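anyone seen this seq b4? input:
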Amino acid sequence: MPDLVSWRTVTTLWMAWLVYWIFSAWGVRRNERGEPMAHRFLTAFVLGVAVFLIFARTSHLESLARRFVPDRREIRTVALIMIIAGLGISVWARRHIGQFWSARVTLKEGHQLIQSGPYARVRHPIYSGIALAMIRTALFMGEWRALLGAAILIIGHWFKARREEALLESKFGPAYEEYRNRTGSLMPRLR
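predicted toks r here
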């Protein structure tokens, strides 16, 4: 029987998530307004660097290929469980936002402010789930380059989230400000 606590399992989970992400993009509403092309390119570049650092078989960055955690099955098992949880959170949020989802910072035709499901407590639960899964993927791999990649991805999503919030505030005004005041950005706000 194959070992399920393996790098192959991790990459299979991410590939299945990516396939879902691509197919679920069909049927979303058309864009009404969005960010400039330069911002989209910068976001794609930053995320591409992060993904390369995490998933490339070799990085030619020997100093970053050192381990930051011991290579132990218990660590990999916990990391794998948390990868599944993070990907699950992002899929739950993606399904909940439905036709208003976009990979880019945009407003959709007839855009609505989603405040239910995971969005009732967190403004960016997709990014939260992806961050959890990426940090745990870095833990599973155990190399500094993966940890650096996860940090770059989280920072890239944080900047993208700020641009999304500015666009949503321009559309929804006080309603968005009230929503922002009662929710956390990437984690639920402690009351």
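Residues 144-172 form the longest helix (29 residues). The chain has a mean pLDDT of 93. kinda curious what u guys think
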